[in-house]
Every structure is written in C-alpha cells, then in structure tokens.
Amino acid sequence: MSKRKKDNVASREPVIENRKARHDYNIIDTLEVGIALQGSEVKAVRASLVSLAEGFIMARRDPCKLVLHQVNIGEYGPAGRMSHAAVRNRVLLAHRKEIEKLAIALETKGVSLVPLKMYFKDGRAKLLLGVGEGKGHQDKRNTIKEREARRDIDRAMSKRMKV
C-alpha cells in the first residue's frame, strides 16, 4: 500500500521546464544537480511558481561552486513575513570534479550553462542543467522548418491510417 501512495505523490510533483532554452541553444550535455532552497522557496516550487526562462548558471573553479542567477521563484503567500526574495542567486550542489568540468566548458566561446528543468526526486529539489551552444537566427529557422515538416508527415500518415 505504501508503494501505491508514493507513486501518487510522485505523479503530483511539478516539473517546471525551460522550453525556450532548447529553442535558443543546441544542448551538448546535461547534468542533474541539487539546489539549495529556503523553506518558503520549496513550497513555492511545489506550487509551480517558478520561471526558468531568464536564468543562467555560472561555474567558478577558484572557490569551486555553481550559482544559479535570475531565476524567479514567486512568493509563497502563507509564508507571510518569513518569505524569500523572488529573484536571488542560489547555490547549486554538485561534485567538485563536475563543477570543474563545467567551468572548463564555459571557457569555450559561445558556450553557456542554462537551466532546463526543475523537479523533485525523492523529496529533494533537483535542477537539470544543460551545456549549450547558442543557435544563430538561421539555425532557429532550420529547426522550425524541420518541426513543421515532421508535423506535416505525421498528419499525412494519420489521415492515411484512418482511411
């Protein structure tokens, strides 16, 4: 019975995605990291009051840390005066070797670390970050063309299957 209960709880957990990141960047590699949140921030994330679209991540080798910048986690109403600041720098949790690897990747021109998805795993907030190369205007057009061509093919195939 407890297994069933855990499955129901897991299915209700929010998954906040940054769809704009996949449009603006070619994602080369991904990494799942933890995120250090305050109590009211955790409640706000569970209520899906998060915007990842403007966010970016900085990796430093000297103090060896990952920092999430400009991600808006909305205020949680019932927290009252004990609420958190909506936009602040948040520390990300990862192994030292992973942080150093990401810092080296950031030294390459045109490479950025972007937040892709925020979710809960075993009751802990996780962030999927991606190492991405910026797409040019023409690359974005090609992606849109390919997506539309795929849709047209799928429509034609579904009509053919119905007949």
Radius of gyration: 19 Å
> Can you tell me the residue ranges where pLDDT is under 50 for at least 5 consecutive residues?
none
Major sheet: 7 strands, antiparallel
Give the CA-based shape. Answer: globular
Which H/E pattern describes the elements?
HEHEHEEEEEHEEH
Sequence-ordered SSE layout with sheet pairings:
Elements lengths: L1 H11 L3 E2 L1 H6 E11 L3 H8 L3 E2 L4 E5 L4 E5 L2 E2 L16 E4 L2 H11 L4 E11 L2 E11 L2 H26 L1
Antiparallel strand pairs: 1-8, 2-7, 2-9, 3-6, 4-5, 5-7, 8-9
How would you describe this structure to a colleague?
The protein is an alpha+beta fold. 38% of the residues lie in helices and 33% in strands. The chain has a single domain (2-135), classed as Small Protein B, Chain: A (Beta Barrel). It contains five helices and nine strands, in the order αβαβαβββββαββα. Strands 1-8-9-2-7-5-4 form a seven-stranded antiparallel sheet. Strands 3-6 form a two-stranded antiparallel sheet. The chain is globular.
Question: How is this structure best summarized?
Answer:
The protein has 163 residues and is of the alpha+beta class. 38% of the residues lie in helices and 33% in strands.
Structure characteristics:
163 residues, alpha+beta, Small Protein B, Chain: A, single chain, two-stranded antiparallel ribbon
